[in-house]
Amino acid sequence: MLSEPKASVHASQPTAARSGRPRIQVGGIWLDALTEHEVIDVVREGWEAGHGGSIFTINTDIAHAASRNPALAELVAAGSLVVADGMPLLWAARLAGDALPQRVTGSSLVFSLSEAAAADGQSVFLLGGADGVPAKAAEALCSRFSTLHIAGTDSPPFGFDLTAEGIRRAISTVTTAAPNLVYVGLGFPRQEELIQVLRKALPHAWFLACGGGIPMAAGVFSRASPTMQRLGLEWVHRMRLEPRRLTGRYLRDDLPFAIHLLARSALRRLTHRGLGIGAKS
Question: Is residue 24 part of a domain?
Fold first, then answer.
């Protein structure tokens, strides 16, 4: 998908934009200007009202892919909540004259949502990761939040979502467990695509596309230090952990895209300021 020619992407605002929550456009993607705490509040309000939704966390890699592929841009736009999981996106918004309040990562939401679920009596399902990893992550979360109820875990084989039978099995496993919250860690865009299908089967549940959040909760991977996170260098930490898989992607694709995005955002602010109009990234 990433090898397709670049296309001009003007994704429409997701349905959630009509709720009145502030949204900012960065690199063609509409992002909710919410803190992690505010994301949790939206989910808890949903539980109380009996309706579900999806949370997509957008990092530089996902933004780059969406900028090159209109279908992926539309997939991102389908999220109920779409938040910035990448410091370059926050910097780009700031350079354009807008402001995103905070980076909101999938790996952090795994813990904060689990805490909220434990407090509210909501059940959690973990889907994705190597064999045994979701169960290990569930154990770690229960150790941290003693009242958390785990509805189930599943580690489907790689490529399961390429067949109708594999997708049916995953849907059946999750729907039989009937969770209130599902963490889906399959990587972009597989996790977002599966969430769109699962939402139809479980309309009252919330879904988090969490990337590597499940193995991180299990202790398989560590997060970068808080200082590296603040400086926007967590990608360097991830690249050191998985050099074969990530080095080419980060250095060849994502870093040039981030630089271009920042430069374009700064230029647009200067242009709009000169014209005396508001800036949009």
Answer: yes
State the total domains in the chain: 1
Domain that holds residue 134: 15-275
Rounded CA-CA distance 279/281 in Å is: 7
Residue of higher predicted confidence among 140 and 251 = 140
How many other CB atoms sit within 10 Å of the CB of residue 71? 12
Let me know if residue 3 belongs to a domain.
no
Phi/psi of residue 212, nearest 5 degrees: -85, 15
Q: What is the pLDDT of residues 191-243, one digit of tens each?
A: 999 999 999 999 999 999 999 999 999 998 767 777 777 777 776 767 777 77
Residue 131, in any domain of the structure: yes
pLDDT per residue over 103-148, tens digit each?
Answer: 999 999 999 999 999 999 999 999 999 999 999 999 999 999 999 9
The tokens for 72 are: 């992926």
Is residue 198 in a domain? Answer: yes
Q: Which long-range contacts (CB under 8 A, 24 or more apart) does 138-146 make?
A: 140/217, 140/218, 140/219, 141/110, 141/111, 141/114, 141/217, 144/111, 144/114, 144/115, 145/114, 145/115, 145/117, 145/118, 146/118
**Which 3-state string (H, E, C) describes 243-274?**
HHHHHHHHHHHHHHHHHHHHHHHHHHHHHHHH
Q: What sign for the dihedral angle of Cα 98, 237, 226, 21?
A: positive
